[in-house]
Design a protein that fits this description.
The structure holds two protein chains of two kinds. By secondary structure, chain A is an alpha/beta fold. Helices cover 34% and strands 17% of the residues of chain A. Classes of the chains: A alpha/beta, B alpha/beta.
């Protein structure tokens, strides 16, 4: 095993339950390398939901919360608010984050709360055996779209941008170094950051989305059919848009905003509770 | 009425008149709760309103989440961040929280969830009271787990039981539910409250299946929603270990039922008819007992019950008590779950009849019926959102006894 992974993984939890050729290992390494580079291991906790991608942090020898389906962001926000100085890393998938957890994503993005989300998008529900996810491309034949999918797929990164996330990047598993750099930047960024990783699921989405179960073929395909976005460039159609899509340092972070507002009042006197009726001198009301 | 907090409440305190919901909110701050996440819902809204200001004044964190699901999740997250946490809701919100209650039970997260019950099902009766969630509170989330649920019947109990809920949840490292209802939530009474912050001792190792530390303290803990072993490693695929885990998290509550249970009895020494009530219904039930015994209501119970008093006086003046032949007592259950079976059996051992008035279609009486096979257990349900009146209770009891003999 890699020296770095040796230091960071729970040895007794291995081997992982990922299929051979799964993209999760690449994401796992990128996240660990980012945490190690920043030297924030004791100050970082990982939260994940349900699904293959949510198993990624369960092997980290760190504080890890493996929660319920779609709710990782809600748990993470509670944790972050309880310990505002610490880092929270959320691992989630396309089903976990964009389907069942969509509402939590909306509000976490809008709050711009300082959490880093790694959204591993494999275009399918892998753990349950290959059903259509909100990110499944149109016409893909899956276990629950036998006639070919006809929902318009949700783009994770663009959705987060439109909801107000202030750092959004997208990479594929064929861009491991860039992915690691983006995770580092996302953790350092003060505000809500989401890094979408287009990942291969050779077992489930291989055949239905890419036409091959060979992980090397899919990764080659991902590399060839993606381009790195630069501001002002001519964007090719039908290709995966990679790169840092937005990095906005101007919008204020939720906890900072909250603190600033409280401090306005703390210096004066405590805020009185609206509608609170406390009758202190009970003698006058006793009959 | 002395309530059984784990550590005795301090002497002194201030006397104030408070609404039930606000008493609950204040008790949370006093018990050291420093994180509240919630979503407004009638009839529990006063709790979130009060804490939106007071939680901050106490140096804690308040957040209004996007829904009750997120609220429940956030308090579990915050508890692992080292803050005592609570949320408050009513029926529809409580339904949404079930997923996280199961998660908190499996991960042994000490959180307090307040359910100020309203009439159901669905949107039901937002402004009316009920006790319809009595089974949901125990069986709401899927799978086998045990829950601790406390049922306050007065504003003072709303205050004391909230403190006790935090103590029990920390001690047994389990979610504890304060199962209030609209009547106690919105009622105003004179109660004793305390200032400052109460020290509540954390989880006792004996009660914890997988000992885990708060996050960011170097414990490298794995909080796992799948069945797990002592290290947090999943054992969901192993039959024997999974069974062991389920038995452990249930056992830590069921085996300590003596410590958890709180059952009060009134006039039960020689009674052969018992009224068994919990929550707000135990108040008219106590008055019904007093009515049968011809006891005058004490001064502090007079308020707001003038009509009832007049009725008694009228009867007194007529020189008759139609219920004098009935030897009635009251068993008041404050911890509905875990079910205090032995204690109820002990108290009701000599009773020919046990009446169970409830503000639902008749639920808890089935549990009583199951454990009291020597007595005739009769349900006195009342649905529609109104609480039983004492005279109504006594009339039904007298009628049932007459019919049965």
């Amino acid at each position: 095993m890699n020296r770095l992974m040796e230091r960071y993984l729970r040895r007794d939890a291995l081997p992982t339950l990922f299929c051979p050729g799964c993209g999760n290992g690449i994401v796992q390494y990128a996240a660990i390398a980012a945490i190690d580079n920043l030297g924030i291991r004791p100050d970082t906790a990982c939260v994940s939901g349900i699904g293959c991608s949510s198993w990624i942090p369960c092997y980290f020898n760190m504080d890890v919360m493996h929660t319920t389906h779609g709710r990782a962001l809600a748990f993470a926000q509670g944790l972050k608010l309880a310990q505002p100085d610490k880092k929270v890393l959320v691992f989630t998938g396309d089903g976990d984050c964009l389907a069942i957890g969509g509402n939590h994503l909306l509000h976490a993005c809008k709050r711009n709360i300082d959490i880093t989300v790694i959204l591993v998008n494999n275009h399918i529900y892998g753990m349950t055996g290959g059903q259509k996810s909100p990110a499944t491309p149109e016409s893909a034949v899956t276990k629950t779209s036998p006639w070919g999918a006809y929902d318009e797929p949700i783009q994770g990164a663009e959705t987060a941008m439109s909801l107000g996330a202030t750092y959004v990047a997208r990479w594929t598993t064929a861009h491991p170094v860039q992915l690691q750099k983006s995770i580092e930047a996302g953790i350092k960024h003060k505000g809500f950051s989401l890094i979408e990783v287009i990942s291969q699921c050779p077992t489930q989405s291989g055949k239905s989305v890419y036409g091959s179960k060979d992980p090397a073929f899919i990764m080659n395909y991902l590399k060839e059919s993606s381009y790195v976005y630069k501001e002002g460039m001519d964007e090719p159609q039908g290709k995966i848009k990679c790169g840092v899509l937005i990095h906005d340092n101007d919008r204020s972070e939720y906890i900072e905003r909250m603190e600033a507002r409280m401090n306005q009042f703390r210096s004066a006197k405590p805020v009185k509770v609206k509608n609170s009726k406390e009758i202190e001198n009970t003698r006058s009301v006793e009959r | 009425m002395e309530s059984q907090t784990v550590e005795p409440l301090p002497r002194g305190g201030r006397k104030v008149i408070l609404q039930g919901n606000e008493a609950c909110a204040r008790a949370a701050v006093y018990a050291g709760c420093r994180f509240f996440a919630g979503y407004p819902i009638t009839p529990s809204t006063e709790i979130i309103e009060y804490l939106s200001a007071e939680m901050i004044n106490a140096g804690g964190t308040f957040i209004q989440m996007e829904d009750e699901i997120a609220s429940a999740c956030a308090i579990v997250g915050a508890r692992w961040g080292g803050k005592k946490a609570m949320t408050a809701t009513s029926g529809p919100g409580f339904t949404l929280m079930q997923e996280t209650i199961g998660f908190a039970a499996v991960t042994e997260t000490p959180v307090v969830i307040v359910n100020v019950q309203r009439g159901g099902p669905s949107t039901g009766q937002p402004t009316m009271s009920s006790q319809q969630d009595i089974y949901q509170v125990k069986y709401g989330s899927h799978g086998d787990y045990e829950i601790i649920a406390l049922t306050p019947s007065s504003v003072q109990e709303m205050y004391d039981f909230t403190i006790r809920a935090f103590e029990l949840s920390e001690k047994f490292r389990t979610p504890v539910i304060l199962l209030a209802d609209e009547v106690v939530g919105h009622m105003r009474e004179k109660i004793t409250i305390y200032d400052g912050e109460r020290k509540i001792r954390g989880g006792h190792r004996n009660y914890v299946v997988s000992p885990q530390e708060d996050f960011y303290t170097g414990g490298n803990c794995l909080v796992e929603g799948q069945l797990h072993d002592e290290e947090g490693m999943r054992v969901g695929h192993l039959a024997e270990k999974s069974g062991e885990f389920i038995r452990s998290i249930s056992g830590k509550i069921l085996n300590h039922i003596d410590e958890i249970q709180d059952v009060e009895s009134y006039f039960m020494e020689n009674a052969d008819i018992a009224i068994l009530a919990y929550g707000s219904v135990s108040r008219p039930a106590l008055n019904a007992v007093k009515l049968a015994k011809g006891i005058k209501l004490s001064a502090d119970e007079k308020e707001g019950k003038l009509r009832f008093l007049k009725k008694i006086l009228r009867r007194k003046s007529a020189g008759e008590n139609p219920y004098s032949h009935l030897n009635v007592g009251l068993i008041k259950v404050n911890t509905v779950w875990p079910f205090p079976e032995k204690e109820i059996q002990r108290l009701a051992a000599k009773c020919r009849y046990v009446f169970v008035p409830e503000m639902n279609a008749g639920k808890y009486y089935k549990e009583i019926e199951r454990c009291l096979w020597g007595s005739t257990v009769i349900s006195l349900p009342k649905i529609g959102g109104e609480i039983h009146s004492p005279s109504e209770l006594m009339e039904s009891i007298a009628g049932e006894v007459r019919d049965n003999e």
